[in-house]
Amino acid sequence: MVKTTDVTSRWSEDWQSATMVNSTLVVDPTIQLPSFGLQWRQWSLLNRFWTGQGHCNACHKKWGFTDELCDCGEIQTMSHIINSCPLTKFDGGLLCLHEADEAALDWLTTYGS
Question: Bridge-partner residues for 75, per DSSP?
């Protein structure tokens, strides 16, 4: 007897049991994200915010490039840039940026340039 596996259910179960940074942004991994059709540059930058790993001073310091402070005087992490920096903060934070609406794309374009 051959046992069949429902790949979609298995994928969803694996996703729910995984412990990844910001995994709660994706409720169902089988549904295409709003950001699916973005240009590579915008998607790449958004992906850096999702993972918390990108071009921020805290990562640059870890890599030996620069000091970890932001222009506002706080430690600059990807989370700081989007959630709390008075110079770059995106209203609604990562959850709203994840929606990839017009405001999010404008912010990504401004921040990413």
Answer: 69
Span 6-41, pLDDT tens digits: 777 776 676 667 666 676 777 777 778 778 888 888
Please write the tens of the pLDDT for every residue from 33-67: 778 888 888 888 888 888 888 888 887 777 777 78
Task: Give the range of the structural domain holding residue 106, as residue numbers without chain letter.
Answer: 37-112
How many domains are there within the chain? 1
In a domain, 77, yes or no: yes
Q: What residue type is 49 in one-letter code?
A: F
> Which DSSP letter does residue 47 get?
H
CA distance 12 to 46: 22
The whole model's pTM is what? 0.68
In a domain, 103, yes or no: yes
> What's the rounded Cα separation, in Å, for the pair 28 and 16?
9
Give a yes or no: residue 7 inside a domain. Answer: no
